Amino acid sequence: MATTDLDPGHPGEPMHPAAPDLVSAQQTRGQNLPPAWGWPARGGGRATNVEPGIMWQATTSQICGLFPFAVAGGAAPRGVPVGRHLHTGEPVGLDPAHWLRTGLVSNTGMWIQGQPGIGKSTIVKRLLTGLVAFGATAVVPGDVKGEYTNLVTHLGGTVWRLGRGLHSLNPLDAGPLRAALQAAVGTERTHLIETIRARRLSLLEALVVIVRRAPVTVTERRMLATALDHTTPDSPGNSPGNSAGDGAEPVIGDILGVLSAPPAAMLAVTASDTEPHYRREARELINTLTLICSGSLRGLFDRPSTVTADLDTPALSLDISALDHDDDDVVAAAMLSAWAWAAGVIDANTGLGRTRTVFRVQDELWRALRVAPGLVELSDRVTRLGRHRGEISAQVTHSLDDLDALPTLEDRAKARGMAGRNAITVLGGMTAADLDRLHTITPLSDAEHAMVRGWAAPPTWVPGQLHPGRGKYLIKSGGRTGLPIHLTLTPDELDLYNTDHAWNRPPARETTR
Asked: Residues 248-261: pLDDT tens digits?
């Protein structure tokens, strides 16, 4: 009868010398390794019990030698989740309104720049979706390509399509401010009347500049103001009992009618003692306004608005993609009118005592500014009237090279100032030349410069590979170290945010004959 030596400390378990099969197996593999709990023999390191590990928590300042990231990423956790930090994996939140309240930034403006195809509109749409979920109202004035239409509709918002045979937008319409004016009294009412008048005049001047591609004269400014006051009963010097909301809004044809049949005040503006002399002075302005009503802009801005604003809707969009292939002056006129309308939405939101944040998106903004001299100042005047603490703005462009397309040095300098006033900059992949020019607006370290430049590197020639900078952004604010992030989309977002539908058409259906 065979006998086996047993470990007296572990009855029933063979000792090491009596386990030849185990030893031979280990040696056969060239691994003279013990089992997980040690050899079941005296001196074999056998453990009868293995205690579980204990988890400890401490700050990185206490265990910085053990923690792999000795310096925290400094990511702001509050806000719309826009991705994870590329170096630490921390979730990064972006909410300019919260950053303003906590003292991180001085204003809520964002400048977003990067090469085409890296996803500039993607991060804007993620922000729009998240801010609407937080209770904000999104306003997209002048959506040139119609790329926000599906998202706004999905969020339960309203989309107005502007174009010939579609909706029209009267640049002299008080729009959303009409309801605020009807509810206002005293000095607040006077302030709103002056705000509406100033915006109408600025937009009238902008339309004249666009059509003639030259600035208006001082006399023409006074003529436009006089004609506007004669067509709006709420203007200073006219009947105080009326308001813009009590009757029909003026249209450009009404302005043209006053200029064509001038009252005595109009003759005084032009220092004309006879009507023939006045007509010579007013000829250029009358012909310019006539072109708005009968030229390439006919039917777009010379009739009453069919667009209305519901301040309770989660999102509003003015889709001008039907005009995308028109001349630049048509697109510029539509964009400036839409921007003024959006500024009215913001002012009305505040004038009615609402505390709801408004997120305004201005994409392709240079298409409206490059048409004629002075449009940068006029557009800034139109939109500046609506800048309040309750507004978050996002201005999107491809490159600062767009500045070179502006007509004058003065326009280019003002445009750079407009870009530099934004407290937050979001950068996608771009060339070294673009980064060098951007350095005058947002300082970048050598490492940040190299990283963003690397995102613009040409991708591999292997089909199906994504651009190396797709979904990667650097968030900068002042002189702080930037937050490099990578945005990953959900399946629903991949469809809603897709701007390449023209290149991703579904397969053609088979037809039977």
From this structure: 789 999 999 999 99
